Hints:
Distance between the termini: 27 Å
Number of helices: 4
Number of domains: 1
Structural class: alpha+beta
CATH superfamily: Creatinase/methionine aminopeptidase superfamily
Number of strands: 15
CATH topology: Creatine Amidinohydrolase
Strand content: 25-35%
Oligomer: single chain
Radius of gyration: 17 Å
Helix content: 25-40%
CATH architecture: Alpha-Beta Complex
Largest sheet: 5 strands, antiparallel
CATH class: Alpha Beta
Order of helices and strands: HHEEEEEHHEEEEEEEEEE
Amino acid sequence: MIPLKSEKDLQMIKKSAQILAGVMRQLEKVIREGVLTREIDALAEKLILAQNALPAFKGYKGFPATVCASINEEIVHGIPSERRLKNGDIIGIDLGVNFNGYFSDAAITLPVGRVPARVKKLVEVARRSLAEGIKEARPGSHLSDISAAIQRYVEKNGFSVVRQFVGHGIGTSLHEEPEIPNFGQPHHGPLLEKGMVLAIEPMVNMGGWEAEISDNGWTAVTKDRLPSAHFEHTVAITGKEPEILTA
């Protein structure tokens, strides 16, 4: 059962999402060569707490940090550490906010300095694939129309979508029904309705789609160790166009 949000719920989720978007803009400003990923994490936590909100990820199922900081071949769930960003890296920042029990979730992948042209294209295709998926987030579409649009755009551009990790519903919990794969055939699954709120998040690999979990038990990496990019927005299904709450 996919929960439908009331107007009050939506307003609270929007507030959570606005806090998240503001924090993400501040984090983008500090992504540069030489920065430690733990410094990014500390700043994110400080900014969220200053808004009378809480980091949604920290402590969730034991995750030890505020942000997921995933570099190069790391797909998702990278743990912040003493690792320094280097020129030519890409870093995916995934962040969640809990504002008075209402949740939002977003991710962005950013280059550090100058990156190779193929890596730059990977990041742009991943970013654009999210926009393609969001276009389908409207009443009357099937859930899998989002998935198919993402896969179609990614594969048309010569990359692959991760199968093991998916998007999800969100609102009064960080993860709600439904699961939203980034691959599949169109016109399948439940019909989308006004009041649904979805965290749509394509993860796009330069090489094959296969992933494995690293020794820390959290971080997913590409099996072929080629780079991966991740983008995410929290999106509300409205009576007309989809509303990107974390824009």
